[in-house]
Structures are given as structure tokens and as C-alpha cells.
């Protein structure tokens, strides 16, 4: 019993000790689990926080992008509105030059007519002086005899004894000679009087010419300033909102001939109309009715054309430039019948729009020099080539008779600048004379 009792406590002690060890381990495990859970939770919390931060950043980015997109839309809308305002201003400024340009062209024509008259007067003076010199040369040998006869008629006739019949014949010859001398003297007197009259008329014409030139330069400066203001407004419009205008102008620049340019322009406009219709349908599918309406309105405007077309009522406005017609429509040329009208204008003469419409192209073109294509509407287009300066830009709306440019400077020597005016209806050329 003692041994058992002795062993029992020992076993108990051992068991207790073993139990204490397990308890200690259990206690250790109990304390370790919360630490592990805390680290995991921290990681999860960090991940959640990172995800929340990323989500907030994404939302902020999306909000910023939406804000930027809206800002760009507002800017584009403002640009379009500014473009429309500038285009309307350009059209208004162009229309304002019509009367001033008409007065300037009248003055330029008056100056050209005066210049021609002065040239004619100089030519007449030169011809009269040449005739006077010839008459004086013919009369000079007879003057000594006429003087002797006037001083000593009897001595002259009796110097050589002649039969009576021959003396009478001599007297008749002398009388005829004196009559001819008197006639030539009167002709010389009349021509000298005409020369004096021409000198007076020439002085008057030159004085008038100086006044007209002064008036012309003043009017030209006024028209140029107004045309330049319209051009600047149109350039601002083009810079603010590019449209099919640039595509039309680019298509014309790539053309190899005027006919090719007209064809390319019409093809580009047809494609632009189709693109606008597609854009309108896409906007409708996106329920953006405002954009759809704007696209269809623009397509409708393109289909209607840039102007009212042309009519014979335009003929009252006259030629697009002062001067004279050098080659008429249909006149024989080296390349066949003329397909337009060629004018010989004064130096730096103003050039006016031959119809109301929109500028399709303005700039240098092949061998035509400075050229512009003006869309009058209803598939009528005027081509003006040979200008020195162009005062309009592609896309600009101009009024009939408005200033569109100037001819080159010409001093009178060398090849004279000319303005070629052609009217086209689709692919065919039309006689422009009835419409100018």
C-alpha cells in the first residue's frame, strides 16, 4: 500500500507535470492565435484600404476625365460659335466693301480712260510735229524765191527776157506756186494752233488724272483695309473650327487642271454630305438629337449650295475688273476657242466677286498664278486667275461685287498682267458675258 501510495503520488505528480506541460502549451497556443489573427487582419485591412484608395483614385480620375471632357466639349462649342461669329463677321465685312469697291472700280476705269486719252494726245502731238517738220522742209526751198518775188516782182520777172506767151505762163506758174505756199502756210498755222490746243487739253487731262489718282489711292486704301479685316475674321474662323472647307481646298490643290479641281471639289463635297448624314444617324442612335440636328443642318446647307446661283440680272454689276476685254468668249486662240474672257486691267486694279457665294479655293495654282474658285450655288462656279494679291480665304462667304483681290503692279513695260474669268456649270464651261 505504501508503495502504491508512494507510487500514486509519483504518478500523480507525473500526470500533473504532464498536464502542466500540456496546459502550458495550450496556454501558449491560446496566446499565439490572437497575434496571428491580428497580423492577417492588418494585411486584409491594408488590402481593403489600398483597394478603397485605388477605387477612390479611379473615381477621382473618372470624374476628372468627365470634367475634362465636358470642358473640351464646351471649348469646342465655344470654338464653333466663335467660328460662326467670325464667319458671319467676315461675310458682313465683305458685303460692306461692295459699294466702296464699285466706286473704286469706276475711279480705276476713269483713270484708265484718262490714261488712254493722254496717250492719244501725246501720239497726236507727235504726229503733228512730224507733219509740221515735213511741211517746213518742203516749203523751205521756196521761201527765198517767194521773198524775192514779194520784194522785187518786176525785176524777178524781167531778169530773163522771154516771149510774151512764155512770160504769161511763168506768171501763172509763179501765181500757182504762191497759192500753194499760202495753203501750206495756213496748214502749218492750223497744225501749230492744234498743237497749242493739245497742250492745253493735255495739261487739263493731266491735272484731272492727278486728282483721279489721288481719289483712287484713297478709295483703294479704304477697300483694302475692309477686305483685310474680312480676311482676318475668316482666318480666325478657319483656325477656330476646321470643317469640310479644308478638305475641299486640299482636293483643289491636288488637281492637275481647273476641270479636275472642280470635279474633285464636287466629289469632296458629296463625300462630306454623306459623312454628315452618317454622323447624324450615329448621333440619333446615341440619342444625341442636338448633334444629329446640327449635322443634318450642315449637310442641308452643303446640298443647297453656297449661293443663290447666277442670273442675267447680275449683268448690271459690270465686269469684275476695270479695263478692256483682250479676248472674248469663243475667240480663236492657239489652244482653240477661248473658254472664258480675258481682261487687260490697269495696274493694281481691284477685282470684285462676280457672284454671291463661298470661296472654294484661293491661292497659287499650276501655271494660272494666283487663282480663286468661287461657288455661286446650283453648281455654278467662277474661276478667276492672274491676280497679284488675294484678299479672301477658302470658306469665306462673299457678296456680289465685294473686293476679293488686286491685279499685279505693272509699269507699262514687259508682259501686261491679265485677268482670266471662266464660268463653269458642273463639268461644262459657260459664256460668262451675259452674267457680268
TrEMBL record:
Keywords: Hydrolase, Metal-binding, Metalloprotease, Protease, Zinc. SUPFAM superfamilies: Duplicated hybrid motif. Pfam families: Peptidase_M23. Residues 1-44, 62-94, 232-252, 268-306 are annotated as: Disordered. Residues 10-39, 233-249 have a biased composition (Low complexity). Its cofactor is Zn(2+). Transmembrane segments: none annotated. InterPro entries: Cell_wall_metabolism_enzyme (IPR050570), Dup_hybrid_motif (IPR011055), M23ase_b-sheet_dom (IPR016047). Residues 62-89, 268-287 have a biased composition (Basic and acidic residues). PANTHER family: CELL DIVISION PROTEIN YTFB (PTHR21666:SF288), PEPTIDASE-RELATED (PTHR21666). This is Peptidoglycan DD-metalloendopeptidase family protein. It comes from Komagataeibacter melomenusus. The lineage of its organism: Bacteria, Pseudomonadati, Pseudomonadota, Alphaproteobacteria, Acetobacterales.
Amino acid at each position: 500500500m505504501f508503495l502504491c501510495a508512494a507510487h500514486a503520488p509519483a504518478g500523480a505528480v507525473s500526470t500533473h507535470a504532464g498536464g502542466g506541460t500540456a496546459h502550458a502549451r495550450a496556454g501558449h497556443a491560446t496566446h499565439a492565435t490572437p497575434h496571428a489573427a491580428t497580423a492577417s487582419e492588418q494585411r486584409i485591412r491594408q488590402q481593403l484600404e489600398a483597394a478603397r484608395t485605388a477605387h477612390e483614385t479611379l473615381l477621382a480620375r473618372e470624374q476628372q476625365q468627365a470634367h475634362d471632357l465636358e470642358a473640351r466639349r464646351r471649348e469646342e462649342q465655344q470654338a464653333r460659335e466663335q467660328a460662326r461669329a467670325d464667319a458671319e463677321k467676315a461675310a458682313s465685312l465683305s458685303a460692306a466693301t461692295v459699294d466702296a469697291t464699285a466706286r473704286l472700280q469706276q475711279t480705276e476705269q476713269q483713270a484708265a480712260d484718262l490714261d488712254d486719252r493722254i496717250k492719244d494726245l501725246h501720239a497726236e502731238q507727235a504726229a503733228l510735229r512730224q507733219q509740221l517738220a515735213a511741211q517746213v522742209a518742203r516749203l523751205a526751198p521756196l521761201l527765198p524765191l517767194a521773198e524775192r518775188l514779194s520784194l522785187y516782182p518786176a525785176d524777178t520777172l524781167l531778169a530773163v527776157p522771154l516771149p510774151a506767151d512764155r512770160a504769161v505762163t511763168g506768171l501763172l506758174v509763179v501765181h500757182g506756186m504762191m497759192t500753194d505756199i499760202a495753203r501750206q502756210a495756213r496748214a502749218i498755222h492750223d497744225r501749230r494752233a492744234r498743237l497749242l490746243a493739245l497742250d492745253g487739253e493735255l495739261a487739263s487731262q493731266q491735272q484731272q488724272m492727278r486728282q483721279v489718282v489721288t481719289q483712287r489711292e484713297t478709295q483703294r486704301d479704304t477697300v483694302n483695309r475692309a477686305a483685310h479685316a474680312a480676311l482676318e475674321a475668316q482666318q480666325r474662323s478657319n483656325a477656330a473650327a476646321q470643317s469640310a472647307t479644308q478638305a475641299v481646298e486640299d482636293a483643289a490643290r491636288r488637281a492637275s487642271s481647273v476641270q479636275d479641281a472642280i470635279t474633285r471639289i464636287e466629289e469632296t463635297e458629296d463625300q462630306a454630305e454623306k459623312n454628315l448624314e452618317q454622323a447624324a444617324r450615329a448621333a440619333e442612335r446615341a440619342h444625341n438629337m442636338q448633334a444629329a440636328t446640327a449635322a443634318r443642318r450642315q449637310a442641308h446647307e452643303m446640298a443647297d449650295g453656297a449661293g443663290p446661283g447666277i442670273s442675267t440680272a447680275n449683268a448690271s454689276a459690270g465686269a469684275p475688273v476695270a479695263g478692256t476685254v483682250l479676248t472674248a468668249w469663243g475667240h480663236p486662240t492657239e489652244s482653240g476657242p477661248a473658254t472664258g474672257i480675258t481682261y487687260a486691267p490697269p495696274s493694281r486694279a481691284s477685282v470684285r466677286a462676280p457672284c454671291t457665294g463661298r470661296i472654294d479655293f484661293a491661292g497659287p495654282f499650276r501655271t494660272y498664278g494666283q487663282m480663286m474658285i468661287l461657288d455661286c450655288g446650283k453648281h455654278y462656279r467662277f474661276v478667276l486667275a492672274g491676280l497679284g494679291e488675294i484678299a479672301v480665304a477658302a470658306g469665306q462667304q462673299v457678296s456680289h461685287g465685294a473686293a476679293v483681290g488686286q491685279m499685279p503692279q505693272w509699269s507699262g513695260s514687259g508682259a501686261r498682267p491679265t485677268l482670266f474669268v471662266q464660268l463653269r456649270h458642273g463639268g461644262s464651261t459657260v459664256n460668262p458675258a451675259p452674267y457680268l
